[in-house]
Amino acid sequence: MDPGASGNDSVVTEFVLLGLTKTPALRPILFVIFLLAYVATVGGNFSILAAILAEPKLHTPMYFFLGNLSLLDVGCISITVPAMLGHFMSNNRSILYRSCLSQLFFFHLLAGVDCFLLTVMAYDRYLAICQPLTYSTRMSWGIQRALAGVSCVFSFSNALTQTVTVSTLNFCGPNVINHFYCDLPQLFQLSCSSTQLNEQLLFVAAAFMGVAPLVLITVSYGHVAAAVLRIRSAEGRKKAFSTCGSHLTVVGIFYGTGVFSYMRLGSVEASDKDKGIGILNTVISPMLNPVIYSLRNPDVQGALRRVFTHRQPPT
Prior knowledge:
The chain is mostly helical. It is built from ten helices and three strands, in the order βααβαααβααααα. The protein has helices spanning 27-54, 61-88, 97-130, 135-138, 141-167, 184-190, 196-229, 234-262, 271-295, 298-309; strands at 14-17, 94-96, 176-177. The chain has a three-stranded mixed β-sheet. Helix 2 packs antiparallel against helix 3. The relative contact order is 0.15. Mean pLDDT is 86; it is low at 1-10.
């Protein structure tokens, strides 16, 4: 350790990630499991993206946002899993201080955009089902790009703020992180300076990027549910609910894991449980999203079949 090497009076220049297991015999097994999960996630999400690009029927606002969500899922899992795979095959589990902050920044950047896009997708379903006559004008191509751009700007601002404030903390003692990637709660536990400001900023961010979007999603789907129940045709109700059910499932997984990850700051005993939540958040959720969105969607299923069989879409 070299005092001041990190540029913020910190004597810690690297952290040690304990990872998922301390048992050497389990590492090759876990390596294979998470390698397969990574390949399945990248392949599944890029397949969804290819289907959206290749199928004219899917050139709609909902699938524009879904394509962006697929890219975010690939980015999210790529931030954590490749490094974890490297640690499984090596005895060196250290991560440089700057690399840790970089991982923290990009994780919160992508997760934040994910959060806002899920909200935008709920608004899209509200307009499509409750305001169909004005849908094409209120969700035009320009508005779609603007919503995606604003989501990126807000998320970038939050990720940069969280990373900069963490960089002002002093780490002068233990440098062992009981996790498989760098995140705020674990770094707060290791800091030998006050984290009160950091926790307050995280609370504000949780309210702005977590609670407020969740309220908007709930309100949007409340209106959607009321509108769907007024549809007289049972087939029409089934079709409307099926297009919303996959999105609600993804929202539930995303926000459920987020609540468990960040609403228990300072709980050292919860670290092992946090690893399980982290796996759900960074591995299982991105891997399941393509399955969830295509499982009950005949349009996506048809587009995927045409992509894999190299057939042209019907004109």
